[in-house]
Design goal:
16% strand, 16 helices, alpha/beta, Rossmann fold, 44% helix, single chain, 5-stranded parallel beta sheet, 3 domains, 436 residues
């Protein structure tokens, strides 16, 4: 599936350039379709949601099915087993513990005589969490519920609405409903794709509009989020998933191959890259990929991704591997080397770093604590994981006494007039004239 390449070489550079150049791929037709959907939902509300849902998800869907009912939540509780609830409880506890440490505080200061300055931190009034349908609800993405809802709740958002496509019979997976309830979601609404994003952005008779929309989705969801950004806040424009593994001779080849496949099975455009200073390891990983891929239910997707965007690259040394990884800025960065902490300080650009052979990326997907909604396609150079901060906003506070105002008035007027804003200068100057 993947040839072993030596770096530096023209072939290795060309392969990496192809991987790095992946971005959000869409056609004009897709863009136009999403624009029409957004506008239709903005104008027609619930009726548009019903029309799209009947066409693509549930043929007999009706308005009274949009919002999940208390009876549906109660039934869901009875359908899930104790093992699931225990695993869910662990994940919620550990994700919550991590995100609580992100909370910023309001602060105030008196830096100069007669001045009072500060910053107030407030949550937005409402947030929307999109959870993909995933094979018609057969594989409920429970972790997407937790990663979106928990930081919103910790930020103090008063109202959190989750949207997810209904199954063909108009239902929602009981696992998603139980996860939503345990994570603190206020309402679960059955809507998917671009029309769900439109409903959260503009509001409908049933789905209230929100201020922030987070959560992964297909190309139509991603395009919709791209188009409404500015009307609402969004988490990020995410491309296909990716992993980069830096490994030395101490790494377990089967572990490395399994981790590459864990990303490759996501999507035909997912990328999986190994950088190693050991040719022996590269050969062993190459053989293990063949063996393990043959046993995957999603073998065709994984093999397609590896052929198009996979790479096994031998580098001169680990320092070269780290430098190369920083230039790629991967979503998931696994450091499977003998002394991973020796290299941690060198890593500048990555969505998340997974240290050691027993910290595979799926640990971060579910229970470790950090958020798994991460920047892709090299955007880790300037972007961060979804966090509590996505649901907060800062308001500056400024107060001057008359004496403090007079102390700085000349400088304010000088700068205003340099910019050609005479009315700005006069609003200051007026206050310097003694009252009669």
């Amino acid at each position: 599936m993947i040839n072993i390449l030596e770096y530096p070489s023209e072939a290795a550079v060309k392969r990496l350039d192809r991987i790095v150049a992946r971005d959000l791929a869409f056609s004009r037709k897709e863009l136009a379709a999403v624009q029409r959907i957004l506008e239709t939902v903005r104008k027609e509300g619930d009726q548009a949601l019903i029309a799209y849902t009947r066409q693509f998800d549930a043929p007999d869907f009706s308005v009274d099915q949009i919002a999940a009912t208390p009876e549906e939540f109660a039934a869901a509780e009875r359908k899930v087993d104790r093992k699931f609830k225990r695993a869910l409880g662990r994940a919620i506890e550990q994700i919550s513990e991590f995100h609580r440490k992100q909370l910023p505080r309001s602060w105030f200061d008196t830096p100069r005589p007669g001045t009072f300055l500060g910053q107030m931190v407030h949550p937005v009034d409402a947030a929307g969490v999109y959870v993909p349908g995933a094979k018609g609800g057969e594989t409920p993405l429970v972790s997407s519920v937790l990663m979106g809802a928990i930081p919103a709740r910790i930020a103090g958002v008063p109202r959190v609405t989750m949207v997810t496509p209904p199954t063909r019979d108009g239902a929602v997976s009981p696992h998603l409903l139980v996860a939503a309830k345990m994570a603190g979601v206020d309402a679960v609404c059955k809507a998917g794709s671009a029309w769900a994003i439109a409903a959260l952005t503009y509001g409908t008779e049933t789905i209230p509009k929100v201020d922030v929309i987070v959560g992964p989705g297909n190309i139509h969801v991603t395009l919709a989020k791209k188009l409404v950004a500015g009307t609402v806040q969004i988490d990020m424009i995410a491309g296909p998933s990716e992993v980069l593994v830096v490994a030395d001779e101490s790494a377990n080849a089967d572990f490395v191959a399994a981790d590459l496949l864990a990303q490759a099975e996501h999507d035909p455009r997912a990328s999986a890259v190994l950088l190693t200073d050991s040719k022996t390891l590269a050969v062993a990983v190459q053989k293990s990929l063949q063996r393990q891929a043959a046993r995957l239910a999603r073998r065709q997707i994984a093999e397609q991704a590896l052929k198009a965007y996979g790479a096994l690259i031998c580098v001169p040394d680990l320092d070269s591997a780290i430098d190369l990884a920083n230039s790629i800025a991967p979503e998931h960065f696994e450091l499977q080397v003998k002394a991973p902490f020796d290299y941690l300080g060198r890593i500048k650009h990555a969505g998340a770093v997974f240290m050691g052979s027993f910290t595979p990326e799926p640990v971060g997907d579910y229970v470790a604590g950090p958020n798994h909604v991460l920047p892709t396609a090299g955007t880790a150079r300037f972007s961060s994981a979804l966090s509590v901060n996505n649901f907060l906003k800062n308001t500056s506070v400024i107060y001057y006494t008359p004496d403090a105002f007079k102390e700085e008035a000349d400088d304010i007027m000088c700068l205003a007039r340099i910019e050609g804003l005479e009315a700005h200068a006069r609003s200051v100057e007026l206050r310097l004239i003694p009252e009669k």
